[in-house]
Write a structure and sequence with these properties.
Blueprint: E1 4-10, H1 22-29, E2 35-41, H2 47-55, E3 61-66, H3 68-78, E4 84-89, H4 95-99, H5 106-113, E5 118-126, E6 129-131, E7 134-138, H6 139-149, H7 155-166, E8 174-178, E9 181-184, E10 190-194, E11 216-221, H8 229-238, E12 247-252, E13 254-259, E14 268-270, E15 273-274, E16 281-293
Parallel strand pairs: 1-2, 1-3, 3-4
Antiparallel strand pairs: 5-6, 5-16, 7-10, 7-14, 8-9, 8-13, 10-11, 11-12, 13-16, 14-15
Helix pairs in contact: 1-5, 2-3, 6-7
Bound molecules: adenosine-5'-triphosphate (ATP).
The site of adenosine-5'-triphosphate has 26 residues, from helix 2 and helix 3.
């Protein structure tokens, strides 16, 4: 095994855990005969993407230390390159890391990198951008935009926000076309496009989704009556949403989400972070386009 050069990009703002201890853990857990490394801290949103773009040809591996938003920024420049994406899950939801079974324990996640194992996963083109985990319009996107404005992070803050907003939220209309076939024209509560099976925190919006199958899972939830909330939560966290009468899912290689009403008023998220939306959404799968360090 040759020594690999790795760059760790740490997002100091993600999740609820302090990142001050990370350099000491890297020093302790990384086998210096296998991995030499440098560390960079992001200073603002979007900085991770800039660093990854600039440095992708100088390292064998660029490691996102944060959550799905941090991964999204760093993954973009690495698509279709030979550089591997590493993940140390220190975000609020850690959806992609959980799906790939990367340990949530920081020491174990770092030690896993010594194995130098990786697998290729799909990524999804979203207009001129990309995402790696889950994107969507509707209620989840509305919560993502409020969560981004909030100073609080973590699962509890997210859950509280969702509970406060669920009754007030008004669905708007979309047309959904998957591989050329029209699916809905009603106003769903949300449409999720899933590469992995979960948003994070084991909330499985697309329980059957596989990340290396060349397909995206497109899921809709209809407006749910308040008496159904406990069942919804049960199905979401138990991976059994397909049993719910308010839920539908399809798989496809390409999709179009056509906005029926004022786009300015709609919320959208890519990997949990709000995204400015002004036009229809064109989606397509980039099969096996990203190398990720994980157990094989
Ligand atoms: N130094 C920084 N200051 C402010 N924002 C930053 C900084 N560095 C990165 N960001 C932004 O922070 C956002 C949130 O990070 P991230 O998504 O990793 O954490 P999270 O939302 O807590 O976790 P998860 O997405 O797993 O729920 C990212 O989209 C990124 O653009």
């Amino acid at each position: 095994m040759k020594t690999q050069k790795a760059l760790f990009i740490i997002n100091p703002k993600s999740g609820t855990t302090q990142k001050k201890g990370v350099p000491a853990l890297l020093d302790y857990c990384l086998d210096s005969s296998k991995i030499s490394y440098e560390i960079f801290y992001t200073q603002y949103a979007g900085h991770g993407r800039e660093i990854a773009e600039k440095e992708k040809n100088n390292y064998h591996m660029i490691v996102a230390v944060g959550g799905d938003g941090t991964i999204n920024e760093i993954a973009g420049p690495l698509i279709n390159s030979e550089t591997t994406l590493g993940i140390i899950p220190l975000g609020s939801g850690n959806g992609l890391a959980r799906h790939l079974k990367i340990p949530l324990n920081t020491k174990k996640a770092i030690s896993l990198l010594n194995d130098q194992h990786s697998k290729k996963i799909d990524t999804i083109n979203f207009n001129n951008d990309i995402f790696v985990n889950v994107a969507g319009v509707g209620f989840d996107a509305h919560i993502a935009s409020l969560f981004a404005e909030s100073k609080k992070r973590g699962f509890l803050s997210y859950g509280m926000l969702a509970l406060q907003e669920i009754i007030k939220f008004k669905s708007t209309g979309y047309r959904l076309i998957i591989d050329g076939e029209e699916k809905i024209e009603k106003a769903p509560f949300l449409i999720s496009i899933a590469n992995s099976s979960q948003y994070g925190n084991n909330a499985h919006i697309a329980p059957g989704a596989e990340i290396s199958d060349g397909l995206m899972d497109i899921c809709i939830m209809q407006k749910i009556p308040f008496w159904y909330y406990p069942s919804l939560i049960f199905h979401l966290f138990n991976g059994t949403l397909t049993r719910s009468r308010y839920y539908k899912t399809w798989q496809g290689k390409e999709a179009l989400i056509h906005l029926l009403e004022d786009a300015e008023k709609k919320s959208i998220h890519l990997d949990g972070d709000p995204y400015p939306l002004k036009e229809d959404i064109k989606l397509s799968v980039n099969p096996l386009s990203l190398k990720v360090a994980c157990k094989i």
